[in-house]
Amino acid sequence: MDPSSSSSSSSSSSSSSPPSEGPLPWWGVAGALVLLAAALSPRLRFRLRIGSYCLLCLLASALTAPACLLWNRGRTVRNMTIIKNVVRTFKYIYGLRFELKGLEHFEIEGPCVIISNHQSILDMIGLMEILPERCVQIAKRELMYMGSVGLIMYLGGVIFINRKSTSNAKSVMADVGQAMMSENVKVWIYPEGTRNGSGDLLPFKKGAFHLAIQTQVPVVPVVYSSFTSFYNPKKHLFTSGKIRVEVLPPVPTEGLTASDVDELTDRCYTAMRETLFRISERPAEVNGGGPSVSH
Ligand SMILES: CCCCCCCC/C=C\CCCCCCCC(=O)SCCNC(=O)CCNC(=O)[C@H](O)C(C)(C)COP(=O)(O)OP(=O)(O)OC[C@H]1O[C@@H](n2cnc3c(N)ncnc32)[C@H](O)[C@@H]1OP(=O)(O)O
Ligand SMILES: CCCCCCCCCCCCCCCC(=O)OC[C@@H](O)COP(=O)(O)O
């Protein structure tokens, strides 16, 4: 070791005060314990990760709402563009990669009804990844009360329904039909009516298909591959992963009537289920399609 450096190091050590050796601050200890616990416990790791997602949604909503109000002065589908661009950054935070196919099927002049499978609260990231311009979603009205998330949904033009009351939902959907045509808006609906992480499809509710036939606009099915390889609340699994998204060709409804709803529902259900199994690399069931409408 060079003697000059030793003398300089001894002089520097005499001039600089010794590092403070006091105890770690309380927050340092707490943080270290949480990280240690998370490393040891999958359940805690899952809860921290999904909790951070919810917190991110709340925070991002609270920060984006003023921008929507300033930019577009209130509730309008134009706010969806702002919301979409914010939410699309979330995939980098959670390591979600998308493989997209069939986006050309969205190039429809005018309104249409978009339907897709619904697996979890992460779906919103996949929704915003491909959301076409001037497109709003149908949501359960409970979401309106989720703090800033409810506010941003309201500002983005999301339509809230009481899914526990068919009559209320039907009348709201009828109003949606009129608004679609007068304001040239697309509507995105989750026909399963609830989240479903099974890797299969639940029977479809019929509202989306009634709406499409009442307005004579095409139905555009969208399928997201199963999340089960990287997201499974029952197994406390939430890691990064790849999601295949396939937009299927539009299904026309010109000339159809309410009596064709069941057939239209079945047709979309079968096409989406086959696609879901294919892009999720799951063998199709031997007995063919499952139930397509709610019984
Ligand atoms: C900046 C940072 C931001 C971060 C924060 C995030 C911001 C994100 C912003 C924005 C993204 C927002 C994302 C939101 C996502 C939300 C997801 C959800 O909430 S999913 C749950 C709600 N959605 C549904 O439920 C739709 C599907 N349901 C339907 O369409 C149903 O049909 C419904 C609700 C209309 C009625 O449901 P029924 O349970 O009664 O079931 P049925 O079998 O469909 O209908 C019963 C009878 O009524 C007839 N019917 C139904 N709809 C009809 C209609 N419109 N006209 C006439 N008859 C109808 C049917 O034909 C059936 O009759 P016969 O069995 O055929 O005799
Ligand atoms: C002030 C009160 C704040 C309450 C905590 C707010 C937590 C915010 C979490 C926001 C996560 C983003 C939600 C995206 C929309 C969504 O995907 O909702 C799922 C619904 O389809 C669930 O329907 P269901 O399966 O029937 O329960």
What do you see in this structure?
By secondary structure, the chain is an alpha/beta fold. It has a single domain (about 30-280), classed as 3-Layer(aba) Sandwich (Glycerol-3-phosphate (1)-acyltransferase), CATH 3.40.1130. The chain has helices at about 5-15, 25-40, 40-70, 80-85, 90-95, 125-130, 145-155, 165-185, 205-215, 260-280; strands at about 95-100, 115, 135-140, 160, 185-190, 220-225, 230, 235-240, 240-245. α7 links the parallel β3 and β4. The longest helix has about 30 residues, at about 40-70. The termini are far apart. Ligand 3VV binds near residues 205 and 261. Converts 1-acyl-sn-glycerol-3-phosphate (lysophosphatidic acid or LPA) into 1,2-diacyl-sn-glycerol-3-phosphate (phosphatidic acid or PA) by incorporating an acyl moiety at the sn-2 position of the glycerol backbone. Keywords: Acyltransferase, Lipid biosynthesis, Lipid metabolism, Membrane, Phospholipid biosynthesis, Phospholipid metabolism, Transferase, Transmembrane, Transmembrane helix. GO terms for molecular function: 1-acylglycerol-3-phosphate O-acyltransferase activity.
Mean pLDDT: 91
Helix content: 40-55%
Strand order of the largest sheet: 1-9-6-2-5-3-4
The chain-level structural class is alpha/beta
**Rg on CA atoms, Å:** 25 Å
First-last Cα distance: 84 Å
Low-confidence stretches: 1-13
Tally of separate domains: 1
Number of helices: 10
Any idea of the CATH class? Alpha Beta
- Characterize the quaternary organization of these chains: single chain
Beta-strand percentage range: 5-15%
In the CATH hierarchy, the architecture is: 3-Layer(aba) Sandwich
Assign the CATH topology: Glycerol-3-phosphate (1)-acyltransferase
Query: What is the N-to-C order of secondary-structure elements (H for helix, E for strand)?
Result: HHHHHEEHEHEHEHEEEEH
Globally, the shape reads globular
How many beta-strand segments?
A: 9
